Prior knowledge:
single chain; alpha+beta; 4-stranded mixed β-sheet; 6 strands; about 30% strand; elongated
Amino acid sequence: MKTWQDIFAKKIADMGLTEPWTLQEDDTLQVHVLKPGWKEFVQCRALGRFQCSQCFYEWSSAKAHVLFHMRRHRGWGTVCMRAFRQACRRCPNPQLEEPEFSLETTERLLHNLVLKILEYCYGVHIQPSNLLEVVVDALVAGPHDSAR
Length: 148
């Protein structure tokens, strides 16, 4: 999480925002379930890597989801994030595993997040073409197993 926070702080500064912003994990976040005054950004097509903690099978998914809830209040900004887990398709009773993201994917995710902060919290008009594609690492072979 420290790497994410460091990159986020740099991107906030690079965009010229002088108000303090924090980024923290929150595994309780849910899509479309927001506290009053909060805004949401969901990155649905990020390339994540996973490893099963039971059989150690490794897989990549171009459909890793990252959810961000953000709020600017009294000169302070807060972002809560949740990276959604996936289950191993080889194990009969798999656990949900945390994704790992490459540095480039993390940079692109946070670039898009900061653009959404500018749009939602500061009223800056953002063109959809300014958002970066985040499936950048490699081709993913095989079908997506949406049952898991």
